[in-house]
Design a protein that fits this description.
Helix content is 35%, strand content 25%. It is an alpha/beta fold and 274 residues long. Strand 1 (10-23) and strand 2 form a beta hairpin. The two termini are 24 Å apart. The structure holds adenosine-5'-diphosphate (ADP) and magnesium ion. Adenosine-5'-diphosphate is lined by residues 21, 23, 30, 48, 50-56.
Length: 274
């Protein structure tokens, strides 16, 4: 088990990552000399108490925000090593477009655009062939059970769950090397949460690297690697192994393994002081 991580291909690593905010003349250090690695194909979950710096870390890793100090390097498929901490705003924007996708707690869909157009508008940043892109967008929407009759719907005509499914499709339309998600099910009811998590698990099973922040056990269980953040440093991590289905679902053929996995995660989090 100890060797599984080291055999994986590293896709992101950070060195001495620091982020501080100054409010009212008071400086708060949120990330403190953080060294970490993210591996290709992993579903990495970041947990930790509220205010521990999870979102701050995710925004730094994804190039949405800049750290105060330290380095973030990507080992992308097309380039050897890309140090995004040396980038200016334009370079960073281009890097995000070409390599990363996002899903947030709020779906941030454009209310004046249909489901399909919300996906297309992001796809067009990278794709020049509109017809090919539309075919890809429709295929992805169908995969999350948004069928032709719903493609023209505006966000206000969709349930919250459907909105978030559109947001996930938008997050992967440009085939990102890493999909980042910050509490993607934080605003959903339990059925929609399950649907969105199933989509994330399916994407990961097909090889999509995912880094997700969550504060719920049900979402964390989807990850194969759990990182626990406390006061701006990684206090512990768990190699949980791949998701084997719901531990409460009697029709799950791997229910025993799923139960063990659930217990392992719970024990780990208790040890972390969660
Ligand atoms: N833009 C900002 N300006 C000032 N303080 C911030 C900003 N973003 C985050 N913080 C502070 O950094 C700490 C960590 O925030 P955050 O990363 O959002 O935590 P988490 O996602 O783990 O709840 C909090 O104390 C928060 O108030
Ligand atoms: Mg947060």
């Amino acid at each position: 088990m100890e060797n599984t991580v080291s055999e994986k291909k590293r896709i992101i690593h950070t060195k001495d990552l620091c982020k501080s905010f100054t409010t009212g003349g008071v400086e708060q250090q949120v990330l403190k000399d953080l060294d970490m690695e993210i591996y290709k194909g992993d579903f990495t979950v970041i947990m930790g108490n509220s205010g521990s710096g999870k979102s701050t870390l995710l925004y730094a890793l994804s190039g949405m925000d800049r750290p105060s100090m330290g380095a973030i390097e990507y080992e992308t498929a097309d380039e050897e090593t890309t140090k995004i901490t040396g980038f200016n705003n334009d370079q960073l924007a281009r890097f995000r477009r070409d390599h990363v996708g996002f899903v947030f707690q709020q779906n941030y869909l454009n209310d004046s655009m249909s489901a399909l157009d919300n996906v297309m508008v992001v796809g067009l940043l990278k794709h020049s062939n509109r017809r090919e892109l539309a075919a890809k967008a429709k295929e992805l929407l169908e995969r999350v059970e948004i069928t032709e009759g719903d493609w023209d719907k505006f966000p206000t005509q969709m349930s919250g769950g459907m909105q978030q499914r559109v947001a996930v499709v938008r997050g992967v339309i440009n085939s990102p090397e890493v999909l980042f998600a910050d509490e993607p099910t934080g605003a959903l009811n339990s059925q929609n949460t399950e649907n969105v998590l199933n989509i994330m698990s399916d994407l990961n099973a097909e090889g999509q690297s995912i880094v997700m922040v969550t504060h719920t056990l049900a979402a964390a269980e989807r990850g194969n690697r759990i990182i626990y953040l406390a006061d701006g440093v990684i206090s512990d991590e768990l190699d949980l192994g791949p998701y084997v289905g719901n531990y409460k679902d009697e029709s799950n053929p791997k229910i025993d393994e799923a139960k063990q996995r659930h217990k392992k995660l719970k024990d780990f989090l208790m040890d972390c002081g969660w």
